[in-house]
Amino acid sequence: MVPFELAEPESLAQAVAMLDPEDSTVRPIAGGTALMLMMKSGLYRPRRLVSLRKIGSGLADIRVGADGSLQIGAMARLADLRFSAEVHDAAPVIAETLLTHSNVRVRNVATIGGNLAHADPHMDLPPVLIVLGARIGVVGPAGEREIAVEDLVTGYLETALNNSELITSVTVPPQTGWRTTYLKCTARSADDWPALGIAVSIHIEDRIVRDVRIAVGAATETARRLLGTEVLLAGRILDDALLREAGRAAAAEAPVVADQHGSVAYKRVLVEVHLRRALAGIGQKAIA
To answer: Which of 142, 172, 202 delimits the end of a domain?
Structure first.
């Protein structure tokens, strides 16, 4: 690695001030699990890294708000989420997803803020957080703002954040009446990079789909919702015929891309099959 400056601010305001909106070689670093690999490979050569470790304790809380929303500090480690009682109660799909996200060594270091800011399409959490309707809190020189997770990623390893902004929190709204699941397909071990990740959140009554959110990742350049398939499902009885129809619609709608995990044709089959499985599993739980 090339030499770089390591800054260690002791407050959020100091951290923001140490970033440079005009210089992409100045970056924040939290867990550093992805960034260090990029640096070792020579893909990224920073001039300065702004460490968030000394301010992490103030941004690592996990709690449930008075309205039932799940509020997560950006410096909360993925392992913290995996074992958090608050997460298990408010949004258990997050904890379930983290069972096979990367490996335990990464989960013990990586933070949820860094995970989202990295914007790798193969990450498991973005599709899940998208269907949960999650939003992130962001702070920068101009103050604070909120961004829906589905609007955060704008391209491969690119986000709507500017170079002087930091993610401070993730908020998941109350999930009363919703059931959510996440399925992924890997070529090797369960914690490998997925060829497809698909999340489904559904509000179903008397086998009728009242509302639904579907998001895919890994097989696409960015995690994104399948709005057309959602419209197809809404207001209809969730039976075998609808499962097949929805699977075909999702396979046609998803903007899949070929990579080392498979061809476009292969990934369309994955989308079709795994959406059917996700809907069938979640539908059975809803009517049980």
So the answer is: 172
